[in-house]
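User: I've been trying to design a sequence by hand for this structure and keep getting stuck. Would you show me what you'd pick, starting by listing the structure so we're on the same page?

Assistant: Good idea, let's start from the same input. This is the structure you sent:
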């Protein structure tokens, strides 16, 4: 099947979803590029359809051949109308996210990263990538955080979001209820935290909370957490994604020492 008109209703729906960073009316996330398509193929997410130009199909013949879903060929103009990136690689996929439960995040000694109102998609994506790199068992996005369907966010995770269990849109009260039932310690990053990184042990599991750049961690979560600081020289604080990555790495090292 091929489409050439930029006014096609299906393409217009995909364009609206991609521009808003939300799911399509069919509940599908929009991904772009051969790398993310390859990562999605290796994951438990369902690929519903792939759009590709003739040139990109030829360049990525082996990858496209392995897609267990309908392939729709677009003219370059039609592809440009739905691509979210300026220099499109002429491959757009529609994928259905895997639905996780709280229990999917709990391992024997779970390490859960909680993003509390983190809205910047680049920062949030970096945090998710670091969470996978440093052994987190799951991720929680509280209400007000970036949507997992946001294209820039998905690209920033470089595929990690397809593999790490996550929950999104949770009320802080629901998160705390789950955490208390699991008897997990909660640590929140704060510039003037009461504990140093070496004192914040996740050896037996726990939750690391990272707040937004502007507001930090919400008062409700702060009241239930021990605050953790990252010592710095000559700068007052770190970018939220950098601080999160440093903390996750340090805590992973601490687990390995125990």
């Amino acid at each position: 099947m091929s489409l050439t008109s930029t006014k096609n209703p299906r393409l217009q729906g995909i364009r609206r979803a991609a521009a808003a960073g939300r799911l399509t009316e069919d509940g599908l996330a929009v991904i772009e590029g051969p790398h993310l398509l390859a990562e999605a193929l290796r994951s438990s997410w369902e690929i519903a359809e792939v759009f590709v130009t003739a040139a990109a199909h030829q360049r990525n013949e082996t990858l496209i051949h392995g897609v267990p879903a309908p392939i729709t060929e677009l003219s370059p103009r039609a592809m440009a109308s739905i691509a979210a990136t300026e220099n499109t690689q002429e491959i757009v996929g529609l994928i259905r996210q895997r639905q996780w439960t709280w229990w999917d995040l709990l391992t024997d000694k779970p390490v859960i990263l909680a993003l509390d109102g983190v809205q910047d998609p680049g920062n949030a994506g970096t945090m998710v990538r670091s969470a996978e790199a440093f052994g987190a068992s799951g991720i929680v996005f509280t209400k007000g955080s970036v949507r997992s369907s946001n294209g820039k966010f998905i690209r920033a995770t470089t595929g990690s979001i397809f593999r790490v269990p996550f929950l999104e849109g949770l009320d802080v009260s629901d998160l705390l209820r789950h955490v208390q039932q699991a008897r997990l310690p909660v640590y929140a990053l704060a510039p003037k935290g009461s504990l140093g990184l070496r004192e914040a042990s996740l050896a037996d599991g726990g939750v690391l909370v990272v707040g937004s750049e502007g507001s930090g961690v919400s008062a409700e979560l702060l009241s239930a957490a021990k605050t953790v600081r990252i010592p710095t020289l000559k700068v007052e604080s770190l970018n939220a994604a950098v601080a999160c990555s440093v903390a996750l790495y340090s805590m992973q090292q601490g687990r390995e020492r125990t």
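That's my pick for every position. To get oriented when you compare it with your attempt: The chain has two domains: 2-96, 102-257. The mean pLDDT is 93.
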